[in-house]
Amino acid sequence: MRKLRKYRSQLRNKKLNFIGVFVIVLICILGIFPLSSNEKEVSNDGGLEDTVKIEDSYSSYIIEGAKIKVHYIDVGEGDSIFIELPNDMTMLIDAGESNVSSYIAEYIRDLGYFKIDYLIGTHPHADHIGGMSYIINNFVIGKIYMPKAISTSKTYENLLNTIVDNNLKVTTAKVGVSILNIDNLRVDIIAPNSDNYSDLNNYSAVIKIVYKNKSFLFMGDAERVSEDEIKTDVSVDVIKVGHHGSDTSSSASFVKKVNAKYAIISVGADNEYNHPSEDVVSRFQSSGAKVYRTDLNGNIIVTSDGDTLEVTTSK
Ligand SMILES: [Zn+2]
Prior knowledge:
By secondary structure, this protein is α/β, with parallel strands linked by helices. The chain contains eleven helices and 15 strands.
């Protein structure tokens, strides 16, 4: 219902535009494509195109006071972050292991969404892309971003097949790719910066979101090698810590540059890797960040209107 009300108010705001475009479309259809059966087919295509344009104009418009809501979903040892963008679009960064895919799907549906506009597979490890085929098969998907990394794992092969089966394409995730740049909202890919790494983790797509005066960084499993290559300003309010808090990531100099208020670690309780590293946790704490962990706090939700930040947790 909340979404419906929001949509209605957007509709009111856009009503004049809508009527204007509708009248133009009607004139075009009646004027240019009158009444034989062939011509009718052409006019249908024209109508469809215009409908798409109208929908696009909604997503490039942010209503006053709209919020970004970032859900760090508790998927155990793995990552899955669902983002309600302030322009009413949605983004999913990773989808955990395959055994949590239905939980993620239910979580997103419970929020009232059936479409994921931007789906990002940070890198081809199973704790990030394991649940992605299920998500693609169960949601309407807009664009998919993944880095150009080679993996011969069954999970990765499966995912590529699912993408082809659903007539979707992959846009390469790498530094310099802008996902969204409208009003006061920017979503950019700031890593990987190289084409070749010895460790798959460093291929991780690193995403930076800036909404008005607040900013978010999502590190995937990027390690120190990738951190050192990033030229973009990484000082943000909220960071999704790289590689589940492992000491392979979050070097002292990087943590200092990030200078976050909140550091979120997506990590499984009693995991076999001993994540997160105590050093990494205290590094963030002594940089002034409050640390939240999915193993201790459950689902972590950060909400912002672009000026304020609010954190809520399920535990
Ligand atoms: Zn991982």
